[in-house]
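Hi V.,

Quick status before I head out on leave. The structure for the redesign project is tokenized and pasted below; the design run finished overnight.
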């Protein structure tokens, strides 16, 4: 990389406020007036591109995913798909945690801005709770159950009452000859449906322990929370709570007979 040429490319009016310094041989960190929501500067680095002297590689030294990992689990397949879509839509590639794009030297400013926008979108994935991420709640729960709770022989969408298809449970788990009926709840309508199902199952005198995993229990209406609290044996306010203590609870609630 010819550093004098890079400096001249970043001396345009559009790139006002841009600067860089060498962090280690061949790797230059950009100083740019582009920040995350907490005020930290977006991490962007420059180095030689394997495409040749007329290209520059823009990358983040894996800092973006490290930052995201503090508050967001990207290992879930549905979130990985969203992450991959962001990269594809922004022309950014991914290798061993490092995000990068190779751009021609005469398009360096445009490449930097494109890359910075992609980084901000990735870091903001954890805020997409209203639509995009919320839509993955049931998939996330299902994925966790099938991957981590195989010990309990999980079966989905069962109707425990004989000759009845109206009242089904999301998942049936079995441990030490005891049945657990697990429900995922997102929103008031699902909460009402689960409360009614629990009442009917109790009327049928079925021996079971009910588990409710909420997407966000605090978002439910007061009546919906009351209905579930009266009829459910164990509730988890958010999925992360279930991931942290659900396995231990299952074993504790159904000890060896």
């Amino acid at each position: 990389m010819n550093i004098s040429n890079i400096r001249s490319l970043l001396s345009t009016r559009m790139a006002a406020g841009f600067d860089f310094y060498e962090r280690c041989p061949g790797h230059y960190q950009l100083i740019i007036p582009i920040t995350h929501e907490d005020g930290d500067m977006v991490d962007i680095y420059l180095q030689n591109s394997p495409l040749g002297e007329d290209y520059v590689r823009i990358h983040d030294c894996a800092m973006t995913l490290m930052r995201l990992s503090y508050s967001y689990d990207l290992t879930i397949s549905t979130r990985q798909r969203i992450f991959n879509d962001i990269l594809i839509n922004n022309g950014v590639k991914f290798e061993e945690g490092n995000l990068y794009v190779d751009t021609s030297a005469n398009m360096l400013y445009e490449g930097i801005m494109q890359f910075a926008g992609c980084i901000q979108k990735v870091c903001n994935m954890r805020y997409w709770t209203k639509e995009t991420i919320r839509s993955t709640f049931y998939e996330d729960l299902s994925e966790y159950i099938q991957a981590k709770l195989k010990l309990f022989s999980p079966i989905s969408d069962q109707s425990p009452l004989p000759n009845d298809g109206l009242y089904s449970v999301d998942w049936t788990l079995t441990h030490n000859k005891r049945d657990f009926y697990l429900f995922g709840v997102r929103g008031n309508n699902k909460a009402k449906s689960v409360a009614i199902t629990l009442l009917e199952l109790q009327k049928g005198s079925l021996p079971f322990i009910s588990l409710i995993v909420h997407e966000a229990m605090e978002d439910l209406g007061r009546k919906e929370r009351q209905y579930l609290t009266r009829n459910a044996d164990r509730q988890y306010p958010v999925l992360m709570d279930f991931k942290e203590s659900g396995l231990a609870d299952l074993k504790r609630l159904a000890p060896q007979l």
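Above is the designed sequence. The domain at 3-127 is CATH 3.30.1460 (Yope Regulator; Chain: A,).

G. will cover questions while I'm gone.

Best,
W.
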